[in-house]
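Handout, section 4.2: multi-component inputs.
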Amino acid sequence: MKRIEVIPIPGIPEVKAGADLGAEVLRALRRAGIPLLKHDVVVVKQKVVSKSEGRLVLLSKVKPRRRAVQLAKAERKDPRVVELVLREASEVVRSGHGVIITRTKQGFVCANSGVDRSNVGPGMAALLPTDPDRSARRIRAALEKGSGTELAVLVTDTFGRPWRLGQTDVAIGCSGISPLVSYAGKKDRFGYRLRVTEPAVVDELAAAAELAMGKLKGIPAAVVRGASYVRGDAGAKALVMPRERDLFR
Amino acid sequence: MKRIEVIPIPGIPEVKAGADLGAEVLRALRRAGIPLLKHDVVVVKQKVVSKSEGRLVLLSKVKPRRRAVQLAKAERKDPRVVELVLREASEVVRSGHGVIITRTKQGFVCANSGVDRSNVGPGMAALLPTDPDRSARRIRAALEKGSGTELAVLVTDTFGRPWRLGQTDVAIGCSGISPLVSYAGKKDRFGYRLRVTEPAVVDELAAAAELAMGKLKGIPAAVVRGASYVRGDAGAKALVMPRERDLFR
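Output:
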């Protein structure tokens, strides 16, 4: 019976725009004496990916438009942050109680379009990577080249959920792994045919990795070893619910 | 740097109503040579908990009311199953595309009030435990007594999410663990004060455990070892978004 291991990667330094994140992760793994094994899943937090891709914004340079000022007032937020939230959004899904839920240009529904001020330094905000699947592909290419082994890579962020308090990490980008595993049409041991069972494996891996990384320990990456998954390259964008099946749109 | 391990528990037999699930888990652990260590989190799937609590229903005994027949027709479902879904629901949140999203009497929003025909045998359906936090407390008491060590227990189920395809496991019951860890008011390493960061640790643990259990392997329980959590007994019901903060109600 296969065990799964979640291994935090310590010692990744503060990453600057233009940094080769794959190379940084490889160096940290080497220093920590953690080898990469075939089909390991390397999970990297969005924040460090955004930093490496230059997706930090100095708030003092942001000029909020009228709509941002109004929404910021209603939700008691910084109008410059709200301006960024609106720029990153394709629509505002809901707002209220100091929360702005948007659909990002990538298609994900989350708070504040993923714009976040934590762990980036004073007066700064981080935006999501423009194309987190592409980020994951790039990091995977670097890690596979450096390690000579076949891997999967996730880029993860922390999302809230409607109806349920708290947040969990989910995959906003992935490479080398199929985001969903479909059991539709498979039979259980009583012969009952499953219809909709389709675990979002990348989101479960993201959540597992978060447990080892935490929020304030400065650990932006982890290795998940021993998990079963299907290789593929649909990307996390394949998790976006198509409009015609969306009951909440 | 602490690693987390997810250990599937093999050899739990098919469970009957009235079975002492804690004792079954302990026996399986002993046979598999897996000791329980202090603060291990034992994760048990809802289905096996429901079975042990006699929450299986023979569909041939269910007489659907008019509303169930209508909804079943609209969503092309078995009217007897829909009858159970409605009985277990406090409200229907949405329906369409063959999906019925309800709020359960426990307060969780999920598909079909958690009523499910997989892995229960022909002509049968499983309902959620009446009080999954109580189920978790009972199992924990048995496991702590048998092992002489302090543990946490989760009862988990597979939930879909709006806007995102696929499902992940979440905790519908928990004991010995605080479902959320609040970072509100804590400062990041740049001095920025976090405001809403509150990981739903039990849901991340549930997702991690699912990776080791799968859907068709007949493994209804796992141990998660090495995860940091806060002890507490608020139960998973504390995850239900209060009405006054709910933007999707």
